[in-house]
Specification:
The chain is an alpha+beta fold and about 190 residues long. The chain folds into 2 domains: about 1-30, no CATH class; about 30-190, Barwin-like endoglucanases (Beta Barrel). The chain has 4 helices and 8 strands, in the order H-H-E-E-E-E-H-E-E-E-H-E. The chain is globular, with a radius of gyration of 19 Å. Pfam families: KWL1. Keywords: Secreted, Signal.
């Protein structure tokens, strides 16, 4: 191979790694944002009538899938962990947690589960075990991450949750040692404790 061809190949490989940084880590970007719906199909669509100004808010130009289900429960469930603020001034809406009618400090190990996994309050106040980043933590289910409704004041003008979300407090992220730019969305596994 000529020197010119070698340089061309190196330039292309470099562009691929810059465009898809997970490839250079060897994980294919596996820890951030991949949908893991596991056969759960949308049950409908939500089309907001107006947009809101926050970064994660709904847009009137977009439609959002809604779900009555979550992926089937197994011994170890794949999920996307997202960050939630369960304080009274949190971004997830203005209402206290569904399970106990209380707000929770960001220092508490608490989570909200997507509608299907929340199972009509059946997981309320029960612990789940979350595994990620080579660590494990127990967290209490205190709320539903609503997969059916959203884009309104009650839901902080955010879209409905995806069907495979564990919405966790900052304390859960800290206990798993996930910090910096990795905080926001992270692929995890969880199980009933």
């Amino acid at each position: 191979m000529t020197m010119t061809n070698c340089l061309l190949v190196l330039a292309i490989v470099g562009l691929v790694f810059v465009s898809f940084p997970g490839l250079s880590r060897g994980d294919g970007g596996a820890h951030r944002g991949r949908e893991l719906a596991g056969g759960c199909k949308p049950s409908g669509t939500l089309r907001p009538t107006r947009s809101h100004s926050c970064e994660d808010c709904c847009s009137a130009r977009q439609s959002y899938p809604t779900y009555t289900c979550s992926p089937a429960i197994t011994g170890s469930n794949n999920a996307v962990m997202t960050l939630n603020n369960f304080d009274a001034d949190g971004e997830g809406g203005s209402d206290p947690s569904e399970c106990d009618g209380m707000y929770h400090s960001n220092t508490e190990l608490v989570v909200a589960l997507s509608t299907g996994w929340y199972a009509n309050n059946r997981r309320c106040n029960k612990n789940i075990r979350i595994n990620a980043n080579g660590r494990s933590v127990l967290a209490k289910v205190v709320d539903e991450c609503d997969s059916l409704h959203g884009c309104d004041k009650e839901h902080g003008y955010q879209p409905p949750c995806r069907p495979n979300v564990v919405d966790a407090s900052q304390a859960v992220w800290d206990a798993l040692g996930i910090t910096g730019e990795e905080v926001g969305e992270y692929n995890i596994t969880w199980s009933d404790a």
